[in-house]
Design brief:
Pnp Oxidase, Chain A; 7-stranded antiparallel β-sheet; about 10% helix; mainly beta; two-stranded antiparallel ribbon; about 170 residues; binds flavin mononucleotide; 3 helices
Length: about 170
């Protein structure tokens, strides 16, 4: 593989946001919806930074931008629902990242008795609580402890790559 390296300078330099977004977009991920009831209304946001962390105790993580206005509302709630979106959930991911309007108007959702909110048709539901939050640059790494789960491995997940919603190809 040939190509030019772009290097960071002491002051942050040429590794600007556009370049880094393109670079990070080379890594494919799933997309999750992190949602809960707040003041009697479903509240939530799309997050592609989801990662499994630990089996014992059961932990996962997401990274949240310091600019998020939804996260501070979610962060103080006792339980959060994490839904791993399915391949046909493109409109859900778009709705749950919208700046304006009712994010849940076109989303089929359900709430648990504890207030966690889940998206219907997802491949995995995790009911979680915030375990800890660690500042990391312009994001926080949020560690979530899993209290309950429901998985549907037969449901094909959404794949997010290069800013586009894609689907898995056949297994080899
Ligand atoms: C596919 C996708 C993945 C996203 N992943 C994240 C993420 O991992 N972390 C994050 O803070 N925001 C992420 N966002 C942005 C949030 O969904 C949301 O748009 C942003 O937080 C601004 O809305 P807010 O001010 O209501 O929080 C993602 C958006 C999309 C469409």
């Amino acid at each position: 593989m040939t190509g030019a390296w772009t290097e960071a300078s002491e002051g942050g330099g040429p590794l600007d946001g556009t370049l880094l977004r393109l670079a990070f977009g080379c890594f494919p991920s799933g997309v999750t919806a992190v949602c809960a009831m707040a003041d009697g209304r479903p509240t939530g946001m799309a997050m592609s930074s989801f990662t499994s962390v630990s089996l014992d105790p059961p932990l996962v993580s997401v990274c949240v931008a310091h600019t998020s206005t939804t996260w501070p509302v979610l962060a103080v709630l006792p339980r959060l629902g994490v839904s791993v979106l399915a391949q046909d959930h493109g409109p859900v991911a778009t709705a749950l990242s919208a700046k304006r309007g009712d994010r849940f108007a076109e989303v089929a959702w359900a709430a648990s008795t504890t207030g966690a909110v889940f998206v219907h048709g997802s491949t995995l539901w995790l009911e979680c609580e915030v375990d800890r939050q660690v500042a990391a640059g312009d994001h926080d790494i949020v560690v979530l402890r899993i209290h309950a789960l429901q998985s549907h491995p037969e449901v094909a997940p959404m794949v997010f790559h290069a800013s586009r919603y894609r689907q898995l190809g056949p297994a080899r």
